[in-house]
Design goal:
This protein is about 30% helix and about 15% strand. By secondary structure, the protein is α+β, with helices and mostly antiparallel strands. The chain has two domains: about 230 residues, DD-peptidase/beta-lactamase superfamily (Beta-lactamase); about 90 residues, no CATH class. Helix 2 runs antiparallel to helix 9 and helix 3 crosses helix 6. The longest helix has 15 residues.
Amino acid sequence: MRGAKLGWLLPLLMATPAAAKSIPDREAIARTAQKAMSATGARGLAIATIDRGKVVSVQAFGERNAKGDPLTPHTIMYGASLTKAVFAYSVLRLVDEGKVDLDKPIAGMLTKPLPDYGNLDAYGNWGDLAGDDRWRTITPRIVLNHSTGFANFHFLEPDEKLRIHFDPGSRYGYSGEGIMLLQFGIEKGLGLDAGKEIQRLVFDPLKMPNSSLVWRPDFAANLADGWEIDGKAVPHDERGRVRAAGSMDTTISDLANFAAALVSGQGLSKASRNELLRPGLAIRSRTQFPTLDGDAPAGEQPTGVASSVGLITFTGPQGAAFFRGGHNDSTGNTLVCLEKGQRCVLIMSNDVRAEAAFPMIVRDILGETGAPWRWIFGDMKFV
């Protein structure tokens, strides 16, 4: 009988999340950063840590430009697609205010059919969707869990025309164009200015004074340029248009405050906070990019990885967790958070070569999280 009882107990013990390791001190994190920069050749790297929903460490290392000016915690860096997480949070704030419904079609926000707006340089080529009424089914939730059926952007299509590749809501396919559709619905349909709403709902309450979705002249005094994969230095873009898919400039200090709010649920109702961690759509692709590759064979699909409202959720040895990244040719950013202990590592780099060290950095600080690095980065060789 005793053996039978142990037999029932063993699966429960095996399912219990691993004990969390202590967050390393600043000196240990600095050693990890230097190891990452030495291994990858990256010239600039910033790391913030969150524990129990509070920012406990923010540090920057290396250089912000080819002149050798130091990268600091207050240097303006490109947020890239971490902008999408900020936008998702702001949409959830609008849900709490009763202005947006995650599951009502965006078509209902608009005063005329989407294709009738034509092709708008500021948003998207909506006129290309004439003849395919599936756009009528796209909701804010479908946009935020990246299942619109759009390519990442219409200009990546061979003919540069926007089209729907699969039934909206049926599978994951990363799309910045989808994010722009929701921004369009909020601005043209609800009459709200997305940039001003994000300032009101995110940047002001979360104490992010050096964050903006458009270029500000005061950013120039302490600005990070970048380095591409071949080590070429490139200047920082001055983005003059609010694009919820990725126009944010920010600092590691500002964005650490946002990460702490995200993992703790600050500013959100309980229902909206739960949407962030609810695995809404199972991910079945082998890797995140290319975005339209379709389902991998069953044995090659990531296990327990799903898209939620603005995040990628997964379950690892320490339990429920989420991820959000940001990337361009000279930028590598990532945020990995554990629900247990409300712990996060936020990494920003103005040198895309640093991405090869991201798994090592996260592991050194949080322990093994089970983050789906191969799905995120494909065949990259990690250090």
